[in-house]
Amino acid sequence: VLYSGQGTKHLLLSVLFLAVWEAESGQVHYSVPEEAKHGTFVGRIAQDLGLELTELVPRLFRVASKGHEDLLEVNLQNGILFVNSRIDREELCVRSAECSIHLEVIVDRPLQVFHVEVEVKDINDNPPVFPAAQKNLFVSETRALDSHFSLEGASDADIGANALLTYRLSPNEYFSLLVPTNDDQVKPLQLVLKKPLDREVASELLLVLQATDGGKPELTGSTELHITVLDVNDNAPVFDKAVYRVKLLENSRNGTLVIRLNASDLDEGSNSHILYSFAADVSSNPEAFFRIDSASGEIKVNGKIDFEETKLWKLQIEAVDKGNPPMFGHCTVLIEILDINDDAPELLVTSLSLSVPEDATLGTVIALIRVSDRDSGANGQVTCSLIPHVPFKLVSTFKNYYSLVLESALDRESVANYVLIVTARDGGSPSLSTTASMSVEVADVNDNAPAFAQPEYTVFVRENNPPGCHIFTVSARDADAQENALVSYSLVERRVGERALSSYVSVHAESGKVYALQPLDHEELELLQFQVSARDAGVPPLGSNVTLQVFVLDENDNAPALLPRPFRVALYTGEISTTRTLDEADSARQRLLVLVKDHGEPALTATATVLLSLVESGQAPKASSRVLAGAAGAEAALVDVNVYLIVAICAVSSLLVLTLLLYTALRCSAPPTEGACGPGKPTLVCSSAVGSWSYSQQRRQRVCSGEGPPKTDLMAFSPCVPPGSSSGDSGEQQGIFGNDVSTVILNVFNAC
To answer: So where does this one cross the membrane (predicted)?
Structure first.
């Protein structure tokens, strides 16, 4: 659109830079002319909202507008709201008297929401437009003076003064223009015949009808009126009313009768036969929504009637007769559409954060909710509600705007995610509603320390374990999530005796497995008690301890300690003798195990057990119950021996005893070389499987010998075990009395 004139430029500049700020109900109001160039100043929005320029970027300053995000923009460097793209008021708001762009300004830290209204001012950028470039009129030469001929007026897409039209007819001597007053705009323009027509003088007239709007500068539009002067049919159809007013419910079915028109013609015959039709109308397309019966004049519904699209229909009806030439009559039908509750509310949810920390303070804004309803009156009044019962609530912040805020404390370990149902319900009857589902995730904070299943564990480990062996696994559970639930384990260091705990055991930081770093010794450490700490990876970290009691189980890993051996046995003779003097420090009971082994192939062995009891001098030796029991067993075995064998043995034994007595008497009759012996040592009592004997020395006797010092003899014996006692005994007997050479080994064990 081109503008001319110095005054026009000044007016445009004054309108372009007009910005009004007003604080009403917390809302900032600006105005901007339509068709303003890119970068046109609208207002200092940051300053008007009380925000510092330095905090726009850190606080994530942003502007949102439903469906019009690219029209306006904010320079974050200077806080100025400017025009970003072309704004066409007629495209944005059609012919609405008020046209505004609603902005939502959102800043974080803390969260604030501001509502800004930018009014789009109309400029005179649309000229008046007539329905057609040429209008044909047929006027009978017999028409009376002051006859009126209806004309379709021009329309202007602008509003206010820019759409206020004035009409002017080109100078002529036959017709004048009758323009309806402002209070009666529904009436059409009319040509008024001011001078009788004479077809023979002028059969056709060409007039120009010009419309001028009230804008600055003015814009004009024109149409040509081609008037044909007719002869004959001199009466045009006339309607009962010039204007008909009708009310119609929206969504009425097709075929619903709207109105029946009636026009009359004073002529007769075909000149009075009337046909009805829609006149041309530049502002609407009535044939898509209504149809008219050309014969009856009935207007019926022919499409979807929507109150939200068009609230008022203005139909121009034309009645024409069948005369030659035809005559025309016109009327206007105004159809007011009545709203019904046929549009459910609309919900627009803007989530401000993907998740909410479980320690968020009460009143934290989670989301912004905008509701709207295209219906009017009570049908367009919307209320919002929230289900189910959750720790959130809806707070009305502005007309049709709600904030979802935190009402009570959150606990992620109890509920990690909330699914909220927001319901918007209008006030119609019956009411309509719309629901929107939104998910609110509760973000974890580190408010739970790792916990062990029990405060103390008891572990049993055998000693001499291999180094690095796994002895136990501790496990702690953290109710938090992600890194707050990532548990690591460590030892609570302390000293065990002279050494650090970490030299005995270690714990794997991730798995919690406890390892013994070195072999444990029951004789050194029977119980190892220590603590394992579990800590999460949160900030700050939380932790807890568990006590482990490790009992080291004993194994047979120590050989018996042998005392010095006070006895010896001759290798080939089987003579048992003492190696030193026996005293009170020696055990009162001694157990000797004699092993006899031959040199055959394979070698055969036999064993004999000798139990020795040491008694003080003067005490009678006592055979142990085990010896007595052995003797009884031997006696029972001898019962079965052949009587002859017993007699022979007794005879041999008697002879042997007699010989020994004689030998002893001869040895003792020799004069002693030394004094009497002092008190004797403890009496040595010997027992075996075939009986017991004692060697008692109350006084030391001098053994006469031609060489060397005297010696103390213990006793040499060769036990005679009856055959059949045991396989071991058989071997023993064979080893002693057989032809093979036998070796006798003495094993002495401490009786204790």
So the answer is: 643-663
**pLDDT: which is higher, 681 or 48:** 48
CA atoms within 13 A on the CB side of 96: 15
In this structure, are strands 589-598 and 100-107 parallel, antiparallel, or unpaired? unpaired
Which tokens hold the place of 673? 């070389």
Q: Which residue blocks in 349-464 are alpha helix, DSSP H?
A: none
In the CATH scheme, what is the code of domain 242-338? Answer: 2.60.40.60
Helix, strand, coil percentages (3-state) for the chain, rounded to 5, are: 15, 40, 50
Distance separating alpha carbons of residues 463 and 352, to the nearest angstrom: 63
Asked if pLDDT for residue 26 goes beyond 70, the answer is: no
CB-based contact 700:709 (threshold 8 Å): no
CA dist 66 and 348 (Å) reads 9
| Average pLDDT of span 685-712 | 37
Task: Say which CATH topology domain 451-553 has.
Answer: Immunoglobulin-like (2.60.40)
Fold of 28-121: Immunoglobulin-like (2.60.40)
Which DSSP symbol is given to 188?
P
* Two structure tokens written together for 507: 């714990």
pLDDT at 740: 40
Residue pair 595/745 in contact (Cβ under 8 Å)? The answer is: yes
CB 355 within 8 A of CB 304: no
Helix (H), strand (E) counts: the chain? 6, 50
- d(C-alpha 336, C-alpha 341), whole Å: 16
Reported as a pLDDT band with limits 50, 70 and 90, residue 503 is very high
Cα–Cα distance measured from residue 638 to residue 689, given in angstroms and rounded to the nearest whole number: 13
Please state the pTM of the whole predicted model. 0.46
Residue range 337-352: mean pLDDT, rounded: 88
Integer-rounded Cα Rg, in Å, for the chain is 65
Q: Is 667 helix (H, G, I), strand (E, B) or coil?
A: helix
Span 280-311, pLDDT tens digits: 765 567 888 999 999 999 999 999 999 988 89
What CATH class does 134-230 carry? mainly beta
User: Hey, what CATH topology would domain 346-443 get?
Assistant: Immunoglobulin-like (2.60.40)
Under 8 Å between Cβ of 546 and 534? yes
Query: What is the DSSP secondary structure assignment for residue 176, as one 8-state letter?
Result: E
Please provide the DSSP assignment of 114-125 as one string. Answer: EEEEEEEE--S-
